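User: Could you check the structure of this?
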Amino acid sequence: MTHQIRPIDGNDLLKDVNCRINDLFAAGEDAKLLQCLDEETRRIKSAPTLDYAPVVHAHWDYYSGGIIRPHFRCSACSSPRYEHYAVNEFKYCPSCGARMDEEAR
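Assistant: Sure, the predicted structure tokens are below.
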């Protein structure tokens, strides 16, 4: 599932908003203060969006066999890998894209 995020500079936005609000408050400009807040809200809502997919963290689980020969499985999607070098070589699961940086349980 992807989400949409807005790539804004929060520090820059806060600095700008605080300066405008402080100036308007000091001048007793209540109507302009509300207008300022409305403008900043519109500015945030009109910022461009990006598609973002959360990072899934996983690890390789070892399965000793049974009916199937020994192999590793992704802890996120259970996709099997029969190559034993997979644990060291694959930094991401080739099937689901999970990042293989989680400690095995």
